Amino acid sequence: MRAEILSVGTEIMLGEITDTNAAWLAGRLPAFGIDLLYVSQVGDNPGRMHEIFERAWGRSDLVIVTGGLGPTEDDITRETVAALLGEPLTVDAEQERIVRAWFEGRGWAFGERNLKQAMLIPSARAIVNPRGTAPGWWVERDGRVMVLMPGVPPEMYYMWETEVEPELERRADSVLVSRTLKTLGMGEGTVDETLSPLLAGTNPSIGIYARGDGVHARVSAKARTREEAWRLIEPVETEARRLLGPIVWGIDDDTLAGGVGRLLNERGLTVAVMESATGGAIADALTSVDGSAEYVRGSLVTYATETKILMGVPAEVIAAHGVISRETSEAMAQAARARLGADVGLGLTGIAGSETVEGQPPGTMHIAVTDGTRTAYTHSAFYQGRDASKRRAVTEALGLLRGFVMGQGA
Amino acid sequence: MRAEILSVGTEIMLGEITDTNAAWLAGRLPAFGIDLLYVSQVGDNPGRMHEIFERAWGRSDLVIVTGGLGPTEDDITRETVAALLGEPLTVDAEQERIVRAWFEGRGWAFGERNLKQAMLIPSARAIVNPRGTAPGWWVERDGRVMVLMPGVPPEMYYMWETEVEPELERRADSVLVSRTLKTLGMGEGTVDETLSPLLAGTNPSIGIYARGDGVHARVSAKARTREEAWRLIEPVETEARRLLGPIVWGIDDDTLAGGVGRLLNERGLTVAVMESATGGAIADALTSVDGSAEYVRGSLVTYATETKILMGVPAEVIAAHGVISRETSEAMAQAARARLGADVGLGLTGIAGSETVEGQPPGTMHIAVTDGTRTAYTHSAFYQGRDASKRRAVTEALGLLRGFVMGQGA
Asked: What's this model's pTM, rounded to 2 decimal places?
């Protein structure tokens, strides 16, 4: 099946918004064995919309459109499709009832122009939109399908997942299902080598990708149904996990902070942080997880040297080794743990900015973890701007913490 | 001038990357009086690339292409353009020298396949790329222009700003220049009303936009040169600033954290934070600014209630008013200031998660600022998911801090 995506909106053409809908949809299509061949963006212009819709309808089996379904005069996606197919637009009684109920439920006045959101053509059926006023359209004629959805991402995502995907799955000859194993602590080449006994397979196949949070191994299987595909994936996933061992920290949509949190919870441990160059970003990541209040005691963002000393880092350690040093990071981990009464302390000191400090290059980070007995330490020097340095340091810190806590249970 | 953007890359069609280049470029074109009419993405496929390039070259005065300039066999943007124009591809001696020097300078082996990056056609001149190996192309024939640039964003941005924009400016009949005034503390409607004496003008014109960091007023002027445009903007900007008064916290690319930092620096003040629900995000924002070590003492991320008490919040205050209360936020501001020896303390307590706590709805935030004498306070309840709640709270906290410090000097 050959698919094409059209994103409608003058804001896109002015650079006021980035079309993230197209990329999101593109990522969902391979699961249904659908090849995406073209993506186009166009403003709310009748002539150019007609041109682009006509070409898409002529060359693709499935045309996916987002945007232009709102109530204003600029929103002309429905009109464009009706004209292209030569079919009359009429208000659908059931859709009118739904749109009116949406306004009533919120105590909003119903303007007559909203009636256009209740319109259909004979070849279209409405796709419900519980997140907004505009229903989508499922248009089917001459063996081709066109799907119209709102451009507002949360509305579109929901409509796609609950209404469009089940329909595509029913029609698909095959589905593609993937399981991503997320790892930290091995390079891309080493993961590739480790999984080499499995890499010859074609169904499931394995792809290996370097990402900001480590190396991902994606196991993908094609089958007639999702259940069959999962049955193909299962033994390969099990074997991949056996080969990779403890470097696997999560799957699919898991985040590193979430994985670390799960581990801390399982072991009944709490954590406290003293961070300098990351400026609160480690704590921000740790507390981005629902339920993190269970195991995060807090973080001391000791940006100034005097603040480090105030919070328990011995002035002698800093005097002897410098602020940007292994010893200071270890003393920070220790102080965080002691000060905040946590089981595990994490300390980070380094340089987020572009300057060289104490003879160490921009991006230098010293990171330590301790439970009062055992201490783990790592350092790195990665600089591609202030923000990137901070993000990278957060990943390294969470990775070190994860490894430490894993060892904890051994 | 009618422009069109083509983004090339199979990764885009698989949803592995979002095409942010098109949006970035789209946002730059209005400055040169250029209308963007079409944007398309296409994979590294010879047939479809030819189809799309041919159509673009036929209908647009300026075609901007990103991607497909790398050294691999998949990278066929040069080949596509050469075939479209019926011109021979040959290695350019000067470009070969530059590409070889790039490899030598890094001590990398030069593979012969990299020679393709040194190729040109008669209608193309090379655009230098100091950030990477692949030069761009400026193609000009029959009164039309096609610009080829690498898909890697930092390489493309640099090439566009240093090489392409000056050329477009030379050719433009007119340029559009904008100055954005960023405000906080008034709604969109009130800003609109305040600026109403200026809104009738058409050159400069003023647009008002609600954004995550407040309301923006954009003054735009069209003229033959940038200098002329700035001369038109200046009096209107001055008058807009006078009308808006102290709610203007920055211009153009300024961030709220940067604006607050500049203010603190000017007044010679230091700040310390105690934050709970934002989990370090306030400190992360404050320290995202180069030079923030001058005025940020640190932040105490007191996620657990016991941590708040350990760090100096009186247990009686929490017992009497609850953790999520105005009184606790004020005690946190006070404790941060005292504990870290700062001039100004900022305290925030609230609910980032989706639960109701102490009878207060998800997203509730209590924020206080104090200098030991004066105290300012605000609260809000905004919930659209954990992350959005945290981001919104950071904006409110920085806004409160800014207002407080402004008052400080009065």
From this structure: 0.78
